Here is the input.
Amino acid sequence: MRVKILLQITTDDGEPAGAEEIASFGKSVKQAEDLGLSLAESKMLLAAAQQRIVEAQTKNWIEAQRCCEVCSRRRRSKGSYPIIFHTLFGDVKLASPRFHRCACREGNGRATVSPLTELLPHHVAPERLYLETRWASLVPYAAAAELLGDVLPVETGVNATTLRQHVLRVAERAEAELPKDRCTFMDGSPADWQTLPVPDGRIIVGLDGGYVRDWTERKNNFEVIVGRSMPEDGAPRYLGFVHGFDQKPKRRLVDMLESQGMQANQDITFLTDGGEEVRALTERISPCSEHVLDWFHITMRITVLGQFAKGVAQCDEEAGARLTKELERIKWKLWHGNTIAAQDVIEDFEDELSELDVDYPNLRKFIVAAREFAVYIASNTASLINYGERYRSGERISSAFVEATVNAVVSKRFAKKQQMQ
Ligand SMILES: [Zn+2]
Here is the structure.
C-alpha cells in the first residue's frame, strides 16, 4: 500500500485551505521493520512539515510587519535574500524580504529593513540550542552532534565545531543574565524576616571540589566546585563553576536557591568538607542558614587513620588494637556531637602515637595524618553537630550525594574515552 501524508494550514478565522502532500511512502510488509515509519521516513516527514509550517508562519509575520509602524503606509519591497533557519526538525530555507524605509521616516538610519533578520538574529531555533547544549553537557561535542543527526533531520551544519559555538553562545547569554555578585545577600532586617510567610521545609546544600585537567596545558589542573541543592519538597538542582575563575560564585548559588523558593527566613544547611573556599561561599547568604562539616568527610579521614592502625597491628598487635579502639571512641564522640570530649580523645591518641615504639614503616605518615585530623576537627568545631540525633530524625548529615555529583560531573568527563576535559 501507499501512505500519503497531507498538511493543511488554516487561517485564524478558519478559512479552509487546500491540503498539500508533504510525503508519500510505499508500505508493504515483508518484515517487522516495514511496519510504521522508518527512521529515514520520520526525518523526511518532520523536515517537510517543518519547512511548510515555518514558511507559512513567517509569511504571516512578515505581512504583519509590512506597514510602517508610524504612518501605517505599506513599505516598498526591495527584493529578498535567502536565509537558513536551523531548527531541530530540519534546516528551513526562507526568503528574508527587505523593505524600503518609509518616506515618513527618511533620513533616520538605514535605508532598508529586514524584519525576519530581527526575528531570527542567530538563525538557530532556541529548542535546538537547548537540546544541543543539554546533550553536549553529557557527551563530547562530536558524539552529541552524531546523536542529534541519528534521530533528527539535522544532518547539515551539525558537527563538533558548530555545537561548541552554540553551547558557548548559550553559556554567554546565561552568564549575562546572571546579575553581579555581592558579598552579602541578606537583605532587610530581622523584623522584616518575621513578617514573611512560613517557608517550605529545609534546603540541604552539599558543596565539594574536584579537579579537571587543563585541555591545553595538560600538566595543569583547575579546581571545579560542584554542588547539589535539595529542597525538602521540590526537585534537586546541580551547581558547578571553576574556582578562582568564576566571577559570580555566590550569586550563582543564591540564584539556584532562589529558583528553589529560598526566602530570608529559610532554613538552609550547607554541608561541606570544611574547605575554606566552599565555606566562604556559604557565608552571608541567609540568616537562618548553618554550615555543617559533613559526616562523609569526617569518616573518610577516620578510615584512613584506621588503615594505619591496622598497619601498626601487624608489628604490635596490642598497640594496633588499642589505637583502633581509640579511633572508634573518637568517631562515637563526634557522631554524638561531643566535640570537646572528641578533641580530648584525639589528643590522647596523638600522645599514644608519639610514644609508640614499633617497627612500622609508615609510622611517620601516621603521625602526620593524625595531626592533620586534629587540626581539621579543631578548625571546624563550630560546624560540628550532633550527627546521631540528626540522623535519627531523618535529616541528611552527609554530602556523599555531592561526592556522587563530583563523580558524575567531573570524573565521568575526565575518563579517557570521553575526552571532555
Ligand atoms: Zn511611515
